[in-house]
Amino acid sequence: MTITIAGIEFDNVEYYRRGDVLSLWVGEPRKPAYDDASPEGHYLQFGEDGALIAITIVNARSIFEREGKIPITLPTHQVEATDLGAVLAAA
């Protein structure tokens, strides 16, 4: 099963009914470069390039049954345009 959130395809999905924990991974589980928590308390894991590689949602079923959705606030990332020299020089 694949779940898409914010344009990211999580193709490794596991739900642990006993603990009501939903784990979503892009590819196989691996060690993240860094992690963070969303304001809602979800565990977010990021790869070396800053891409989101995993989300762990505790009380997933409870939240979904109560709200009809599971809100996930992702941190904003700064991006940099570096290959602009030729375009700017020509202008």
Describe what you observe in this structure:
This protein is α+β, with helices and mostly antiparallel strands and 91 residues long. It has helices at 60-67, 85-90, and strands spanning 3-5, 8-10, 12-16, 21-25, 34-37, 43-46, 52-58. The strands form two sheets. A five-stranded antiparallel β-sheet has the order 3-4-7-6-5, with no helix packed on it. The chain has a two-stranded antiparallel ribbon with strand order 1-2. Strand 6 (43-46) and strand 7 (52-58) form a beta hairpin. It is elongated. The protein starts with a strand and ends with a helix. The mean pLDDT is 87.
Please give a handful of descriptors for the protein shown.
single chain; 91 residues; alpha+beta; five-stranded antiparallel β-sheet; two-stranded antiparallel ribbon; 2 helices
Alpha-carbon distance between the termini?
48 Å
Query: What's the rounded overall pLDDT mean?
Result: 87
Low-confidence residue ranges: none
The tally of strands reads: 7
The main sheet comes to:
5 strands, antiparallel
Widest sheet, order of strands: 3-4-7-6-5
Domain module tally: 1
Percent of residues in β-strands: 25-35%
SS class: alpha+beta
Roughly what percent helix? 10-25%
Radius of gyration: 17 Å
User: Secondary-structure element sequence?
Assistant: EEEEEEEHH
Which term fits the overall shape?
Answer: elongated
